[in-house]
Design goal:
Residues 4-248 form the Endonuclease/exonuclease/phosphatase domain. This protein is α+β, with helices and mostly antiparallel strands. It has helices at residues 15-25, 44-48, 116-137, 171-182, 188-192, 208-211, 224-227; strands spanning 2-7, 29-33, 53-57, 65-69, 75-79, 92-97, 100-106, 142-147, 186-187, 218-222, 230-235, 251-255. It has a single domain, classed as 4-Layer Sandwich (Deoxyribonuclease I, Chain A), CATH 3.60.10. Helix 1 links the parallel strand 1 and strand 2. Helix 3 packs parallel to helix 4. It is globular, with a radius of gyration of 19 Å.
Length: 276
């Protein structure tokens, strides 16, 4: 099963790009962010024409998240994070599908820092950590996928010294991400590419994509029940080079149907038929 996350940066304005990628790569489940469309303007029919079920949480001009599935029906389990009844931003949607729980999220940018937007980002992150802990406590196979707006380490950002004052690279934000992982989540892309420079976002300015001056801010986190099923994790970076495309590229994981067995390594020089 192939599960992806993609910040489309405007689902209607970049619909041809989204549909082309869906048709070419055929992911089974997709989390979308930055729909930038009210609920009634989501392109439901175009998505369904490609064989996808869909649920979405829209918002005019800003934010907006969705989950698509061609792996079975989506059963929505949550819309919005718990912990703040006054928060009306469309940033989180969750569903049960194909035997797993998928939480699609768009974490706040937080700039400028310091300021109220940064404070909101930190509060939102704490709510995510609390909810993620409850999801892990269920013991179910869970994935958190989306645009986290955080570069976890120096390896995840081109020229990190230039980002020291940015909300995406702030110590408090990186610490929150680390605390999230410490609950027991596996960062799938980093698990498959532990020492590799690999990005998911390239700005539109200064030929960032051409120079590969990017950031890794789109993540797929796997609960222990899913981490053992991880086969591969990649970035479809070529999509960032398409005409009128998003500044993000799709990121995906491939999951086996069952946990992968680890090979037993026998001591060298010993016949396996020998007995003690």
């Amino acid at each position: 099963m192939k599960v992806a996350t993609y910040n489309v940066n405007g689902v209607n304005g970049r619909l041809p790009v989204l549909l082309r990628w869906l048709e070419e790569e055929a992911p089974d489940i997709v989390c979308l962010q930055e729909l930038k469309a009210p609920q009634e303007r989501f392109p439901e029919q175009a998505i369904r024409d490609l064989g996808y079920d869909a649920i979405w949480h829209g918002q005019k001009s800003w934010n907006g998240v969705a989950i698509l599935s061609r792996a079975g029906p989506l059963h929505e389990t949550r819309r919005g994070l718990p912990g703040d009844a006054q928060d009306d931003h469309s940033r989180y949607i969750e569903a049960a599908v194909a035997g797993i729980i998928v939480g699609g999220l768009y974490l706040p940018n937080g700039n400028p820092r310091p300021g109220p937007k940064f404070d909101y980002k930190l509060r939102w992150f704490e709510r995510l950590i609390a909810h993620a802990g409850e999801l892990l406590g269920s013991g179910l196979p869970v994935m958190l996928a989306g645009d986290f707006n955080v570069m976890p380490t120096d390896l995840d950002v081109y020229k990190p010294e230039r980002w020291l004052d940015d909300a995406l690279f702030a110590p408090e934000v990186r610490d929150a991400y680390a605390r999230l992982l410490e609950q027991g989540w596996t960062d799938a892309l980093r698990a498959r590419h532990p020492g590799e420079t690999i990005y998911t976002f390239w700005d539109y300015f200064r030929n960032a994509y051409g120079r590969n001056a990017g950031l890794r801010i789109d993540h797929l986190l796997l609960s222990p029940a899913l981490a053992g099923r991880l086969v591969d994790a990649q970035v479809d970076a070529h999509v960032r080079g398409w005409e009128k495309t998003s500044d993000h590229a799709p990121v995906w994981v491939e999951l086996a149907d069952e946990p992968r067995r680890r090979r037993t390594v026998r001591p060298k020089g010993r016949d396996p038929s020998e007995t003690a």
